[in-house]
Amino acid sequence: xxxxxxxxGSFDPITLGHLDIISRGAKNFDELHIVVLNNSSKKxxxxxxxxxxxxxxxxxxxxxxxxxxxxxxxxxYAREVGANVIIRGLxxxxxxxxxxxxxxxxxxxHNDLETFFIMTNNQYSFLSSSIVKExxxxxxxxxxxxxxxxxxxxxxxxxxx
Length: 161
Description:
With 161 residues, this protein is an alpha/beta fold. It has a single domain (4-125), classed as HUPs (Rossmann fold). It contains six helices and five strands. It has helices spanning 16-26, 48-58, 74-81, 93-109, 129-137, 148-158; strands at 4-9, 31-37, 65-70, 85-90, 114-119. It has a five-stranded parallel sheet, sandwiched between helices. Strand 1 (4-9), helix 1 and strand 2 form a beta-alpha-beta unit. The radius of gyration is 15 Å and the shape is globular. The model has no long low-confidence stretch (mean pLDDT 93).
């Protein structure tokens, strides 16, 4: 039986912090589903399809990664693909309270679904997609924050040289 996990997020855009969590999670599961979710409280820079394409591009060397999107509850997606683990990244203690609430609700909805938290490497503890977009919008150097494909996509999105 394959060990399957789900790694959800908005990934708008995917950063090196996300890739840190994804690559470490991929080492521990036979199949890791990266699931792009639409966060209704955020205004995305990239469409769901664009985000999925960027994720596929930057994870092409990880053979056990599957990239998907989903509109419903994450627990329903996990059931559909046969995953019993959700992987979530933690940057700082401040992330924990929010993540604990989500994990608790997921446990109510699907008691057999576990959440594994992976602490990001310290070099990415400040990093968020929102910060990357803000810096990119004003032409700042994001080369140490995102893969080259994402840097180029942001340059084109914001028409920055």
